Amino acid sequence: MAFLGGQRLRRTRRTAWSRAMVRETVLTPSDLIWPLFVIEGQNEKTQIRTMPGVERLSVDLCVEAAKAARDAGIPALALFPNTPDHLRSENGAEAYNPDNLMCRALSAIKSAVPEVGLIADVALDEYSSDGQDGLVRDGEILNDETVDVMIRSALVQSQAGADIIAPSDMMDGRVGAIRAALDDEGHEQVQIMAYASKYASCFYGPFREAVGSGSRLKGDKRTYQMDYANSDEAMREIEQDIAEGADSVMVKPGLPYLDIVRRARDSFNIPIYAYQVSGEYAMIELAAAAGAIDRNGAILESLHAFKRAGANGVLTYFALEVARELAR
Ligand code: PBG
């Protein structure tokens, strides 16, 4: 049988060695950023009902996790505190308490495992009594007042040992304001990874259980997080954050937004990260538990998809397991 130009595209797929030779995308441990949920206590872990296999860890266990991450070749951890209820308040002042849970986790990990990069989330939902990422007045999420709090939060985190400040709040102007404050206070080496195009998404449900903000949240986050119908607007968000001094940008959620990752890759010359968020994790785990999909295959396939779309790296709850697997 004759084909146009003699082409048979199956020829290079026929054997394992040939498939390996023509493979376009590789996944390595250095592509993986591991999110950790921090709780108070000593040698304490708690289960997250909607995230089977992920546990909240006390600071001492976070240090152990950081050692495991380092040994597996994971470059950085992203920390999220589950603030005790009595410390949550309307003004979220715990966010800039230099001795808060986040800061204690940052400094404990930094002194025990200095080789691992520490990414500190900056947003109010982990500290406020209403679960919103910003200050609330008469049902409005305040922008500039929230930015002032974000600055104070970023400063205590940098003081405690954060290497990368990651504002996930989606207030306007926060990247530039945080950059200026960091520079003023001698933290010019601290990076900013901007949650640049973060969508108002259903896929954050399990995360909100993990940090304890979900049951408090009234309403939604659609006045600051993006509308899932939009793509051009995501490019404006990214452009803005780069102009304000972001060192890298993030697209979030991950798999349902790979078009945004690819478009950002083609439009901007800056490191781009994608967040395989809690709901995506839960979908894989729960579908696998129900016998619907092959768990390990689905994990590797989804992570390669991020690389194929052009992401420099992925925040994923599967990071440790996959990094260890890749090293074997
Ligand atoms: C909040 C924040 C969220 C996530 C990271 N930071 C949730 C939200 O915006 O409601 C979600 C991460 C995940 O779902 O895994 N500042």
Write the layout of secondary structure elements.
Elements: H1 16-22, E1 32-39, E2 45-47, E3 55-58, H2 59-72, E4 76-81, H3 101-112, E5 117-122, E6 136-137, E7 140-141, H4 144-160, E8 164-167, H5 174-184, E9 191-198, H6 205-211, H7 232-243, E10 248-252, H8 258-267, E11 272-276, H9 278-289, H10 295-309, E12 313-316, H11 319-327
Parallel strand pairs: 1-3, 1-4, 1-12, 4-5, 5-8, 8-9, 9-10, 10-11, 11-12
Antiparallel strand pairs: 2-3, 6-7
Helix pairs in contact: 2-3, 3-4, 4-5
Bound molecules: ligand PBG.
Your description of this structure?
This protein has 328 residues and is α/β, with parallel strands linked by helices. It has a single domain (26-327), classed as Aldolase class I (TIM Barrel, Alpha-Beta Barrel), CATH 3.20.20.70. 38% of the residues lie in helices and 17% in strands. The protein has eleven helices and twelve strands. The protein has an eight-stranded parallel beta barrel with strand order 1-4-5-8-9-10-11-12, surrounded by nine helices. A two-stranded antiparallel ribbon has the order 6-7. Helix 3 packs parallel to helix 4 and helix 4 (144-160) packs across helix 5. The longest helix has 17 residues, at 144-160. It is globular and about 75 Å long. The relative contact order is 0.14. The mean pLDDT is 97. It binds ligand PBG. Ligand PBG binds next to helix 6.
